[in-house]
Write a structure and sequence with these properties.
The protein is mainly alpha-helical and about 90 residues long. About 45% of the residues lie in helices and about 10% in strands. Strands 1-2 form a two-stranded antiparallel ribbon.
Amino acid sequence: MADATVLSKPHAITLLQKLSTDDKFRKAYAANPRDTLLGLGVPENCLPKSMAPLTTLADKKAFEEGLTQVKADAADCHTCLIPPHVQMRKGK
């Protein structure tokens, strides 16, 4: 059984691609991360019941670097009780 706190790799790739390139998506994600993630097909049980709007987002380059690491299996993506974040593995 998959861990409900782990964002699937396909969802993580889609999310990071959009956050690294799409200004309209970035604005929507910051305003309402939960609905935006649901719109990407992230399962509802993988997300908390509510998620506050975000006051800041990393720049596009940071998401691009995360995307590269997720594609190379050098990072894990977790949702937990905050918007998904990339956790880099050091030493690989």
